[in-house]
Specification:
alpha/beta, Rossmann fold, Helicase, Ruva Protein, domain 3, 5 domains, 6-stranded mixed beta sheet
Length: 691
């Protein structure tokens, strides 16, 4: 917004334009030649003042408008005359006098011709300015509205400037009341020099935005495009695809700020809620943005663009009719309304997590100067976040340091960063905070050796793939995929927790029931969303009890078989492209599709524990502080064939029974609980505890 001397100069110019309009109206309202000569002298003086004001600056609103729309001096005078009664209502009485009708107090084409033209020849020649396809109307600066007393004479129709035009002429920066319901105008405080953005984004986005505003399209250009004379849109759409916090809006602000453009940010969800009222509201916003030469950013645009959406065809129409650049921010590149596909010139996908060197700069920019000595590069390599997540994590760390009067350290920042992980997974996956070690994992020696081999592989995978150059040769399948199979409770999930704890990663348990959807295509979307948002260098993905996702493909005998096979094909491709660690657990290895075999790096079978392992599990799970009735015979308990999970359940069940009876935990209670657990699993056990 203009301020200081510039604001004063702008308001002085508006005052002189209104004075000019008043004198012009008063001159047209009188037939006295002497009075007219006096008015002519006054008009010359006012025009001289205006010339001085406009000569000192080329940034006055009307000058910018004239340059943007190629308006000549006569068109500018028409706009001022039409806006005058809205800025100075008392001028309506003079308008009525010129029209010689007390109720005809609006500006029409006839009044403009009478006031602004010197004779009939000029008036006849100037009528072209008021044709329906003339720039003032085709560019939506004026509307021609029939009035009852005007009859069918277009020259007597009311000429109404938009609310946004009147506000713009006096330097107001706010949006119109209609547009402000779902949008906000911002003046970027960032540029390409002050923020760091991924090269793959700026390399595509910068030329489009700069090229759009560097090119002027006249009204005739639309039908003279290409050898076939095809009509092209005046507006341009760009789609930015990325998660919340990936920097989509920031990227647009930085480019717009570098070329001196404002940005109008639209809340797509609010606009969509307006339903049919949103049609006029969106058109109003496009009129304002075209007039001001602003970039429009539509956030949460998925529901607006999808095929069948109510507003989608109208958005396509406005891009065809208005000279606006609209950037649609979406999380997924879904099926777009066909008419809109022809208006979107580029689809740019933003990386979910920034590269470490880029992320380190974002950390430094969001932390106080006192924290400059922290190793942000190490933190960025350790936890790969989006720019938005870094800002939230830095905010949390700053709040914690302010409350404790201590400077932030790297551990505090790491904890703040960890709090951001998984928030964008929603219901699809949850982070496990369990910290386990090999002391918690009791397995046969061969099985434990395989788990240790996986830990070693995860620790060394970056060095092997990047430093040793394997990643350059192996374009796909460079991640680590593990298949754990065995009966329930044999330690598959516990092994996954041990692996992530040993290598310092975070385990994300995928909610398979939340991934699989009854609607066609939704399961594939959910799977794609999981792998897109997963961080290979931070997360381990655990698909627990994954039989429903990884089951064998079937011959297509029904229509549903085809879609089931599509889900498996998508999952195969996602796992092959994923560079991180994926762990699949199953109770039914024979049901796993054969195509997964070559994509699985480690296959580990978890057998039922033998008596020596069972004895260790009983000892490990029964804490020394447990109040017991005498010494417990772990060897005797281990004679019952049970999995580790069943032993855990038996201990909890016996402890509840002892607490309920007020007794100490006894061997008889443990054996009874263990017998019931084993029996419920279908195993034959002795019925009586032998003391």
């Amino acid at each position: 917004m203009a301020n200081g001397p510039m604001k004063t100069k702008m308001l002085s110019a508006v005052d002189r334009q209104l004075a000019l309009a008043e004198v012009q109206l008063r001159r047209a309202a009188t037939s006295d030649l002497e009075a007219r000569r006096e008015f002519d002298i006054e008009l010359v003086a006012i025009r001289s003042e205006l010339e001085l004001l406009t000569a000192e600056s080329d940034a006055l609103p009307m000058q910018q408008l004239a340059g943007r729309f190629d308006l000549d001096a006569f068109e500018q005078q028409i706009l001022w005359l039409c806006a005058a009664p809205w800025l100075e209502p008392r001028l309506r009485s003079w308008i009525a006098r010129v029209n010689d009708n007390s109720i005809h107090d609006w500006v029409d084409a006839a009044l403009c011709l009478r006031v602004l033209c010197s004779d009939r020849v000029d008036r006849l020649a100037a009528q072209r300015y008021f044709e329906s396809n003339a720039p003032l109307f085709s560019r939506h600066l004026l509307r021609s509205i029939p009035r009852e007393i005007a009859g069918y004479n277009p020259l007597a129709f009311a000429l109404l400037p938009g609310e946004h035009l009147v506000q713009y002429l006096v330097g107001a920066e706010s949006l119109s009341r209609t547009a402000s319901r779902f949008a906000a105008r911002v003046t970027p405080t960032v540029t390409l020099e002050t923020v760091t953005l991924p090269v793959e984004v700026t390399g595509k986005l910068v030329p489009i935005i700069k090229g759009f505003y560097a090119t002027k399209m006249s009204l005739d250009d639309r039908t003279q495009f290409g050898l076939a004379g095809m009509e092209r849109s005046r507006g341009v759409g760009v789609m930015l695809i990325g998660a919340e916090g990936s920097g989509r809006t920031l990227a647009v602000k930085a480019v717009a700020g570098s070329i001196g453009r404002s940005v109008t940010i639209v809340d797509g969800r609010r606009l969509d809620q307006l339903s049919h009222a949103g049609i006029d509201a969106w058109e109003q916003l496009c009129q304002e943005s075209e007039m001001r030469g602003e970039v429009v950013v539509v956030r949460h645009a998925e529901d607006l663009l999808k095929q069948g959406a109510n507003l989608a065809p109208f958005i396509a129409d406005t891009l065809s009719n208005y000279n606006v650049l609209v950037v649609f921010c979406v999380e997924e590149s879904a099926h777009v309304e066909p008419s809109l596909q022809l208006r979107i010139v580029e689809r740019i996908r933003l990386p979910f997590g920034f590269e470490p060197d880029h992320l380190a700069k974002v950390w430094a920019a969001n932390m106080p100067d006192a924290a400059d000595d922290l190793d942000y590069e190490h933190l960025s390599r350790r936890l790969r976040l989006t720019g938005g997540q870094v800002r939230v994590a830095a905010r949390l760390a700053n709040l914690l340091t302010a409350s404790s009067n201590h400077h932030a350290d790297i551990k505090m920042l790491e904890n703040a960063a960890l709090s951001q992980l998984g928030a964008d997974m929603g219901h699809l996956a949850k982070m496990s905070d369990e910290q386990r070690s090999f002391a918690d994992l009791i397995l046969p020696k061969e099985t434990e050796a395989q788990i240790r081999e996986i830990v070693s592989a995860v620790k060394n995978r970056m060095r092997i793939m990047r430093d040793w150059g394997l990643k350059r040769r192996l374009k796909r399948g460079i991640g680590i995929c593990c298949l754990f199979d065995g009966d329930p409770g044999t330690g598959k999930t516990l092994a996954a927790e041990v692996i992530t704890s040993e290598v310092g990663l975070r385990l994300f348990r995928v909610n398979v029931s939340g991934v699989v959807d009854k609607y066609i295509g939704e399961t594939e979307k959910n799977l794609s969303r999981i792998f897109e948002r997963a961080r290979p260098d931070t997360m381990v993905l655990l698909f627990d009890e994954a039989d429903s996702l990884f089951s064998k493909r079937t011959e297509v005998s029904r229509s549903t078989d085809r879609y089931s096979n599509m889900e498996i094909n998508v999952l195969l491709q996602l796992i092959e492209r994923y560079e991180g660690v994926t762990i699949l657990t199953t109770n039914l290895k024979q049901a796993i599709d054969n195509a997964f075999e070559r994509r699985i790096t480690f296959k580990v079978n978890f057998p039922m524990p033998e008596p020596p392992q069972r004895q260790k599990i009983w000892r490990h799970l029964l804490p020394p502080e447990m109040p017991t009735d005498g010494e417990l015979d772990h060897e005797y308990l281990a004679e019952l064939e049970m999995s580790g999970g069943e032993i855990k359940n038996a201990i909890i069940r016996a402890a509840y029974a002892a607490a309920n009876s007020g007794d100490l935990l006894s061997m008889e209670q443990l054996f009874d609980a263990a017998r019931r657990e084993a029996a419920s699993a279908g195993r034959l056990v002795r019925e009586v505890f032998e003391k």
